[in-house]
Design brief:
alpha/beta; Arc Repressor Mutant, subunit A; Tex N-terminal region-like; Nucleotidyltransferase, domain 5; five-stranded mixed sheet; 15 strands
């Protein structure tokens, strides 16, 4: 199958034009990144977005791999002298790797099996005779007696028939059509069953001690839970199906003459083939399919949550105090300025066993007064709520003295802060500080700019997934890498302030070139323009082309360097501005849209005049209208507080505002300001059926909820969005 045929297949599957697929694949093959193609090659792709481009990328990889596998299989079978035109046609026509492997199964080199042993004993002709089913009279044992050969290990007719049945069982097992039929039937009617190895033992898996559900209906999070229980040797798991149905399917395909004297031999061989060869193989396949599907779903949920978390709006131009709470080792405090620069820090001991509350308050107040702190960010780990109570009390005291004072606090998800504290990145940033003194800085900074700070941490440790340590780690890493890359490039990066951890995700850059950029910046000073990037070691013409449009220079020589307009479009932009006699400054740029509306000039005509495509012109206009825009600014703002709410304060029916912290298959966890996040079950999200909670909420959303149940003993709060 040719590449052009691949493009046609993908175009049909995705309801696209073939030229869109062809052009996109060519761009990918030339080494262009997905963010670059999606943003700066819209004319070429027909305005495909990142998701569509990645789908094309994934599908072309699969089809190319399938094509290579077909070539290998055809060559192998041909070398065996067994390739027929009909078989070659079937192999070429198949579009699924599993079906291709089914066709190859009879020709795949095998280890020594019961069937190969029987063939060594000379029983293959007897098996072929039985399978022909032409003989309708006589005694099967009489025909089998002709194959008795003590020297080969065939002592009697029964042994001859047994060996022939082994050969027939393998023939049936190797039949691609049989496997396909059994696989499809199993998917439709089988049950996945789990039981407890020790029914009396207490565990987190008790709901699965006597559990069964149709394979076709079981939801991903149950698969992941069952798999984990099996790995921990608490559960026994199997696929159960009505054997009679499967045997009937096999017999329908392989018993062609019911009058044959060998009919019972084929039935016996079919039953053996199913139990010994087909069923175990299909069960493994089905279990793998379920696990892969569950993995893909869990990874998708994790990736979606991560994208929403990374795209939370930054808290700009504020002095922030970060507190990493703890009991015995004390709460670590740090103050950062509006740029994220670390100003000062300390350790306070307000909780047991020291209980130095007055001293702790005095230290916090000192920092608040000294640096005019405006927001206090408290990590949500151990001692978080006790620290919140202390901070709320202090804010109350300060506001009694100076009511006009702007001072609030917020609980911040600290997942991964300890990982960052001990990382190489943190050691480079704060070599003079101990690891325990770095997490508080991270907590403050992830409020100031979530994206810039969270990229320093392995996404798996950020705490917005479910079962992330159970799924395929390679697939998870790849998916999360894509998410971070997409978020970073959609926002853009300040070339003069970004860390190497952030820069390495920019289209066209690598970890090495990112470090080289920081080194160049430290030695030579700030970048004055995008072109200076070409002076950095490792940044050549290709890397510059891929990266330049995503890098911003707010105070550079050229105002266009602080927009998403690519340098390759600067000439067109200048022509555009000249056409309307608009000056090279941001204030004048904003009048361009108004001028266009007044003159009613068609964009198609204007695009031709300045020498770009219409999609690129649209993007240029959008950037000129809002230069330096941050797409995160339109996201819901975080909820700041000045007083504390306890679980004991909650009452059924109470209406509250909360922030979505995590979205999982069965609902969403919402921070309403008490010790534990409340759960909005999927059934409580709307008055209609919701299949996936992501249809309704996303991480970071600020939502209104109603308290429907409070369990103080277990520390659980149930919420509803049906207000």
């Amino acid at each position: 199958m040719s590449e052009q045929e691949f493009y046609q297949i993908i175009a049909q599957e995705m309801s696209l034009r073939a030229i869109q697929v062809t052009s996109t694949v060519e761009l990918l093959d030339d080494g262009n990144t997905v963010p670059f193609i999606a943003r700066y090659r819209k004319e070429v792709t027909g305005k495909l977005d990142e998701e569509q481009i990645r789908q094309i990328e994934e599908r072309i990889k699969y089809l190319r791999m399938l094509s290579e596998r077909k070539s290998t299989i055809l060559k192998s079978i041909e070398e065996q002298g067994k390739l027929t035109p009909e078989l070659a046609e079937k192999i070429e026509a198949t579009m699924k790797l599993q079906e291709l492997e089914d066709l190859y199964l009879p020709y795949r080199p095998k280890k020594r099996t019961r069937a190969t042993i029987a063939k060594e004993k000379g029983l293959e002709p007897l098996a072929e005779l039985i399978l022909k089913q032409d003989i309708t009279s006589g005694d099967p044992f009489a025909f089998a007696s002709e194959y008795i050969d003590p020297e080969k290990g065939v002592e009697n007719a029964e042994e001859a028939l047994a060996g022939a049945r082994d050969i027939i069982a393998e023939v049936i097992s190797d039949d691609a059509e049989v496997r396909k039929a059994i696989r499809e039937r199993t998917r439709k009617i089988a049950l996945i069953v789990s039981t407890a190895k020790d029914p009396e033992a207490q565990s987190d898996y008790e709901m699965y001690y006597d559990f069964s559900e149709p394979v076709s209906k079981i939801v991903p999070h149950r698969i992941l839970a069952i798999n984990r229980g099996e790995r921990e040797k608490i559960l026994k798991v199997s696929i159960e199906v009505q054997e009679e149905v499967m045997l009937s399917e096999i017999q329908r395909r392989h018993i062609t003459n019911r009058q044959s004297i060998f009919r019972s031999e084929i039935e016996t061989a079919a039953a053996d083939s199913y139990k010994r060869l087909i069923a175990p193989s299909i069960e493994r396949e089905i279990r793998n399919e379920l696990s892969e599907r569950a993995d893909d779903h869990a990874i998708h949920i994790f990736a979606t949550n991560l994208k929403n978390l990374l795209m939370q709006p930054p808290v700009k131009d504020k002095i922030i105090m970060g507190i990493d709470p703890a009991y015995r080792t004390g709460c670590k405090v740090a103050v950062i300025d509006e740029t994220g620069k670390y100003l000062e820090g300390a350790t306070i001991f307000p909780h047991a066993p020291q209980n130095r509350v007055f001293e702790a308050k005095s230290a916090l107040r000192h920092f608040i007064d000294k640096y005019q702190t405006e927001i206090i960010a408290i990590g949500n780990g151990t001692a978080s709520r006790e620290t919140e109570a202390l901070v709320a009390e202090l804010i109350g005291e300060i506001k009694q003295e100076t009511p006009e004072r702007e001072l609030v606090y917020i609980i911040v998800n600290e997942a991964g802060a300890s990982v960052y504290s001990a990382s190489k990145v943190a050691k480079v940033e704060f070599p003079e500080l101990e690891a325990s003194q770095r997490g508080n800085i991270s907590i403050a900074r992830r409020l100031m700019d979530p994206l810039a700070e969270l990229v320093k941490i392995d996404p798996k440790h950020i705490g917005v997934g479910l079962y992330q340590h159970d799924v395929n780690q390679k697939n998870l890493d790849e998916a999360l890498q894509v998410v971070v890359e997409s978020a970073v490039n959609s926002v853009g990066v300040d070339l003069n302030t970004a860390s190497a951890s952030l820069l390495k995700y920019v289209s066209g850059l690598t970890s090495r070139t990112a470090e080289n950029i920081v080194k160049f910046r430290d030695e030579k000073g700030k970048f004055k323009n995008r072109e200076a990037l070409m002076s950095v070691a490792g940044v050549g013409a290709i890397a510059f082309q891929q990266a330049a449009g995503f890098l911003r220079i707010p105070d550079g020589d050229n105002p266009l360097d602080n927009t998403g307009i690519h340098p390759e479009s600067y000439d067109a932009t200048q022509k555009l501005l000249a056409l309307f006699n608009i000056q090279q400054d941001r204030t004048s740029w904003r009048t361009l849209r108004q001028r266009l509306r007044q003159e009613r000039k068609p964009l198609t005509e204007l695009a031709g005049q300045v020498g770009v495509g219409e999609p690129t012109l649209e993007d240029i206009l959008a950037d000129l209208e809002k230069p330096g825009r941050d797409p995160r600014d339109g996201m819901p703002k975080p909820i700041f507080k000045s007083d504390v709410l306890k679980m004991e304060d909650l009452r059924e029916g109470m209406l509250l505002k909360g922030t979505v912290r995590n979205v999982v298959d069965f609902g969403a966890f919402v921070d309403i300001g008490v010790k534990r996040d409340g759960l909005v079950h999927v059934s409580e999200m709307a008055d209609r059926y919701i299949k996936n909670p992501l249809e309704v909420v996303a991480v970071g959303d600020v939502i209104s909820v109603k308290v429907i149940k409070v369990d103080l003993e277990r520390g659980r709060v149930q919420l509803s969005m049906k207000i």
